Amino acid sequence: MNDAARRRPAPEAPAAGASVDGRPFAIMVVEDAAAVRGMIIAMLESDPMLRVVSAVGDGAAAVAAITRQTVDVVVLDIEMPVMDGLTALPLLLRASPGTRIIVTSALTARNAAIGLRAMVMGAADFVSKPNAGRGLHSAEDYRRELIAKVKALAAGARDQAPGRGGWPGRADWAAAPAACRTRPLPSGFRPDVVAIGSSTGGPQALFQVIGGLAGKVGLPILVTQHMPAAFTRVLAEQLSRQCAVDAAEPRDGDAVVPGRVHVAPGGLHMVVERGTEGVPTIRLSEAPPENFCRPSVDVMLRSVAATYGSRVLAVILTGMGRDGLTGCERTVAAGGAVLAQNHATSVVWGMPGAVSTAGLSSDILPLEEIAPAIHRLVLNRAA
To answer: Looking at the predicted structure, is the pLDDT value of residue 169 above 50?
Structure first.
């Protein structure tokens, strides 16, 4: 990239979850239980920027309805008669490719596996239904999380869909790296660890990146993905199975193992520090959430930068919010390097966008180019 491109200011994004044209976002609710469907509609429409334009009781009705109107986000139940959510999901995406889908269901081990499968199939995110009786997710928690995610995804859907008045269109962002400030790689940079942060849209991205590194990178890989506890365990299992890697949720006190993918457990921060004899060791923490997240990417990156210094390669993938920004600042200050996913391939360009527009990234890449870029940097280490 030339100096003029580096100095060119990045375009300013609208506020997270904001509609650039002032029109309410159009939402479809797909839920077979009438009482639950009514509750979700009321929750969504408590925000003036959300309007439920369609509410149906099964997947087949949803597929028929989505062809008749423009919908920014679908809130999709999993278990329904006639056609369940997993069957409807690819049909909805085919019928309306620009629409984002949030899967919602009770948080159980079985539904965690189904929810992760849905995200790998193309769903943007999962929100667990309220179950205060089991100490999980009150109705108000559910309302806040659902509204925040729907608005962020709806903004992204409208931004990237031609003709919806977005900021700017997907095609316009094909050259996003040229519009953002980047920084050169540190001279002689050779990573000893790869630390990846992701959120909304992250599971799909992680499967592609980790799968592309299988058998090629002998470094430890640390992953913080914003997910509930039941999901992160399933995520680690599926990464192992589908990507042919050694992936696991670490236990407190585990050593950082070269070649292993360490997935931060949901509900706990993952921190790396020097243990006995200077061996990098993982500590799990119940410290307060940062950026409303636990695990937090910032918490992980700060600890990794403190432990590994200039030998850290941070990778920020798709996700809403700004988690990872201060951690990447610490990474760069210590002499490490940052790669970020570009706007065009991100489900939500919040986390990578924050890092990119702050000028912290050495490169801003399409998802399919991230694993090869990591591999090249690791080869530099072996040279």
So the answer is: no
323 classed as catalytic = yes
Neighbours of 69 (CB within 10 A): 11
Main-chain dihedrals φ then ψ at residue 65, nearest 5 degrees: -70, -35
375 catalytic, yes or no? no
Contact 123, 103 (CB under 8 A): yes
- In this structure, the strands spanning 269-274 and 280-285 are antiparallel
pLDDT per position as a tens digit, 249-303: 999 999 999 999 999 999 999 999 998 888 999 999 999 999 989 999 999 999 9
Q: Which among 323, 343, 356, 361 is annotated as catalytic?
A: 323
Which one from 72, 198, 226, 346 is the annotated catalytic residue?
Answer: 226
Q: CB pairs under 8 A, 24+ apart, for 89-96?
A: 89/118, 89/121, 89/122, 89/123, 90/121, 90/122, 91/59, 91/63, 92/59, 92/62, 92/63, 92/66, 93/122, 95/63, 95/66, 95/67, 96/66, 96/67, 96/70, 96/71
226 is catalytic: yes
Using a pLDDT cut of 90, give the percent of the chain over it: 72
- Residue among 96, 199, 310, 362 flagged as catalytic: 199
Residue count (the chain):
383
pLDDT value at residue 230: 84
